[in-house]
């Protein structure tokens, strides 16, 4: 395959960013554009503006996947319940790791659950007993 021109690179980058923002996975967006993952990684490595756009698109991707969860559950039937449940659980797991503060199932109570309960004696802290 011939090396893309500058104009083609710009168009490919814009299309991949748009596809990500709309909820298409990076793998699928690259496949649609005919771009190798190694090429995309190389472009990201040397293009600060693309890195910024990619980070924004990944945030939008997570939000789009989240929105799709409701649609998936609404369309579930008795026949495909298990498949849909797997799709939902997988997406929830991915979202919880992509944006844990926003989509994680974990609840932060703000408490210190360390064995000392957040208390360190001044004597122990300084090495004196």
Summarize the topology.
Layout: H1 6-21, H2 26-33, H3 37-46, H4 48-75, H5 81-98, H6 100-103, H7 122-125
Helix pairs in contact: 1-2, 1-4, 3-4, 4-5
How many domains in all? 1
| Mean of all residue-level pLDDT scores | 85
User: From the alpha-carbon coordinates, what is the Rg to the nearest angstrom?
Assistant: 22 Å
- Give the termini separation: 72 Å
Name of the level-1 CATH class = Mainly Alpha
Counting helices, strands and paired strands, the structural category is: mainly alpha
- CATH evolutionary superfamily: Homeodomain-like
C-alpha geometry: globular
Low-pLDDT parts are 116-126
The biggest beta sheet reads:
none
Helix content: 55-70%
Amount of beta strand: under 5%
CATH fold annotation: Arc Repressor Mutant, subunit A
Number of strands: 0
CATH architecture assignment name: Orthogonal Bundle
Order of helices and strands: HHHHHHH
The total count of helices amounts to 7
